[in-house]
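Sorry to interrupt, but I need a hand with the structure work. It will help me judge whether the discrete encoding reads sensibly. Write everything out right here, beneath this request:
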Amino acid sequence: MAKTSPITAERILLGVDPGTTVMGYGIIAVEKKKLILVQYGVIHLSKYSSHALKLSKIYERMVQLIDEFHPDEMAIEAPFYGKNIQSMLKLGRAQGVAIAAAISRQVPIVEYAPKKVKQAVTGNGNASKEQVAAMLQRLLGFSDERQNRLLDATDALGVALCHYLNKGENKKASKGWATFLEENKDRVKNK
């Protein structure tokens, strides 16, 4: 499929905050190291009667977003470990379906832990959803009176921002040990 995005940018990042009741998404564009808010929102899933139908709707909407905005990468929040195993399984399935949608369109995927996202956005890995939303509004230059109803969407924007901020780190990590050894000969002892 040819990439004909309505957005002209160096990179387009899709952030996803998976959920089975509400799933958040956020899209940011990167142009000359400047971040531009493209769109953010939520997928309301509580109205669907079965878990299978919810998963189907997640897949459909994720594919629509990918086809419309042609993200270069998708960053998704990893499920957090809770006490309710059934909730964890359902959340993992929702995340898996979102990942499958990206895979179906050959969009690379990166996963971030919730604490890492909060740390990247606010400097505090234990920040509240409201603190993340307030910082994103400052960083991306938007205001929204619906903020408290769209916390899953701003969480998704936070995931996209976290990925942007960690991209240099990811490139270094992907070089592998051979490159590390070559670049750090003075730190490696030969026997």
In short: Strands lie at 11-17, 22-31, 34-44, 73-77, 109-112.
